[in-house]
Design goal:
Layout: E1 4-8, H1 14-25, E2 30-34, H2 41-51, E3 66-69, E4 76-80, H3 87-92, H4 95-99, E5 104-108, E6 122-128, E7 134-138
Helix pairs in contact: 1-2
């Protein structure tokens, strides 16, 4: 996948941005979402899940670490590593099983586990602008 940039001008246009993101996924399955607190990582992941037909409630798995959602495309795994203190916590929950499952993995706060992220993980950066827009960049 080449670098793509998606602008989210406002919350009411997030579905359009999610549709664009999904169009860029291709065969990739691992996405690491970077951004400051409040940048909109969870909100954007919810919009992506909506676009993929998830009917489950999508919420941040801050305390559970991982949530699994059902979609027509198979399971989607949503991780939040914000509260991780040790890499062993992530390994104990079967991280490798998730990342090598072939299913979509959407990961928040990946900087806390970068040393164990698979090489084919796509970095996604969400940046809030002063005017309230969000810029999403996939590398």
């Amino acid at each position: 996948m080449t670098t793509a940039e998606i602008i989210i001008p406002s919350l009411d246009r997030i579905a359009e941005a999610a549709r664009s993101f999904v169009a860029h996924i291709g065969e990739r399955r691992l996405f690491a979402f970077y951004g400051d607190m409040g940048a909109g990582k969870t909100t954007f992941i919810k919009a992506i899940c909506d676009e993929l037909g998830v009917t489950d409630t999508v919420s941040s798995p801050t305390f559970a670490i991982v949530n699994e959602y059902s979609s027509a495309h198979g399971p989607i795994y949503h991780f939040d590593f914000y509260r991780i203190k040790r890499i062993s916590e992530v390994m104990d929950l079967g991280f490798d099983d998730y990342t090598y499952s072939g299913h979509l993995c959407l990961m928040e706060w990946p900087e806390l586990i970068e040393e164990i992220l698979p090489e084919d993980t796509v970095d996604v950066y969400i940046e809030a602008q002063e005017d309230g827009t969000r810029v999403v960049r996939m590398d």
